[in-house]
Predict the structure.
Amino acid sequence: MEQKDLTPESPVVREPEPVTEEERLRRARPGLKDWLELRLGWWGFVRKNLDEPMPPGVGWWQTLGNLVLTLLVFQFVTGIALAMYYSPSPDTAYQSVKHITENVTLGSFVRGLHSYGSSAIMIAIVLHILRTFFWGSYKRPRELTWVVGSVIFMIMLGFSFTGYLLPWDQKAYWATVVGTRIIATVPLVGESLLVLVRGGEEVGALTLTRFYAIHIMLLPAGLIALTGLHLYLVRRHHIAGPVTPVKGRPRPFYPSQLFKDAVVVLVGVGAVVFLAIAMPPGLEGVADPTGTDFAPRPEWYFLGLYELLKIMPPGYEVLATFVIPGIISVGMLILPWLDRSRSRHPGKRQLIIDLAMAVILLIGLCTLKGILETPPPHTPSEASHSAAAPETATMAER
Amino acid sequence: MSEPTQSTKFGEEPESPQRRKVLGWLVGVINLLVVGAVIGPVLGFMGGPLARRRESPQWIPVMDESDLPDGSVREVKYAVRVQDGYRIANHEYVVYLKRNGSEVIALDPTCTHLGCRVKYQEEKSRFFCPCHGGVFDAEGKVVSGPPPRALDRHSAKFEGGKVWVKREA
């Protein structure tokens, strides 16, 4: 099917192929390297990317995208490795993760890379978003780069939420019971959505397989496609320079900028490796649906939402679970059209900067409050206030 | 935009504009059918749990009547064999039983706010939810905090020296 014929308005301007070079090589009976280059055009592609012009003033702040990309590759590699030992069933999930952590060669380390990697990506991606926001880089012509990036961020949150359940320990189980319960507060269709997400009325075998399939297949497929699109758009529209233009000529991406990227990647990956070794990931008791002395805690980057819920007056939970996150998400997606001012300078778009600062402050303070109020691990909260004695032997210590 | 015209690329008009339009349209229809052939069944497949009927609840003996003194609150765990997706599992449940003379009430420990487990604090005669600080009295009524309504109740009765509980949806 001829794509061109279906979309005559396609704005793609094709550059003329470098025919002369090709002809020269073909005539000269190419060696393997040239033959590969003729067939793949790989070196031309690499060359083009290494020569990507960096406007003067671009520097350390523009390294974060590369860090996110590298950490994503880490998540893919460690995730595939973990999937080889993991078994997504309530009867086996916990045991398999315990086995990975305790018996498999380097198991604790690989699991640590995956677990701390997810937190590191979240930090890197938020910094990347903040940089893009304050530099006003989402403005014309880079609106879609921003939109695609925002969707990638939401996919990352989805990864975190679905991945959190997989170890099937107490923390995982209860965070998912409460987290999915939030879905039920969606007006009208909430209860049906809840059943759809959980695969049934309760968090059980089908929730685990559902989350596993979403975590290792649906989200990665979406992420690969959108990351490819994001990178394509970044190269198509090039890097936005500083807000106030700096004098000088653009410099190629390689070597100065790539070196800065490499340094930041080294620091980021180094931190993840260090944490995976220094503080191996823990595993709590196996999920116990009958436990009454476990206070559920979501992953730290969802704590803001969790705290927001606490301060909502009774009956207004839907504000914290649905309305406020919904407004923030939609606001993020349509930001390039909310802020239509020509200038990228923060001083000249006061309203949108103030609004964003309010949102950042709200999320930041709520997250901070949540982190401060998180009880230290393995300390049963309110242990002294023992409840009525259970009639049957507790199953918690299996 | 310099788009190559039909004549330069393929010679003299291989197809009439009308024919191109109809064929293009047919391709669109076929593509819709093909996409529908995979998306439709898959959506139905994933939405299966929505159509599943609940099993009707049954009376289950959970403890001896003599172990539940008047006025006291007891936490009881019991197991029910249920279909959990592809497996039959012993689903364990917890209820709080409170005796008022010859009456017994069974309270579900699921906080009505967002589904955390409430805990009974005997010295204060109240239920406390550790997530968002909801407090219920010994009968399950909301005292303070965010919960929108009292704790859910299950059916409970004394019969043959036992306390029986039937889970309500």
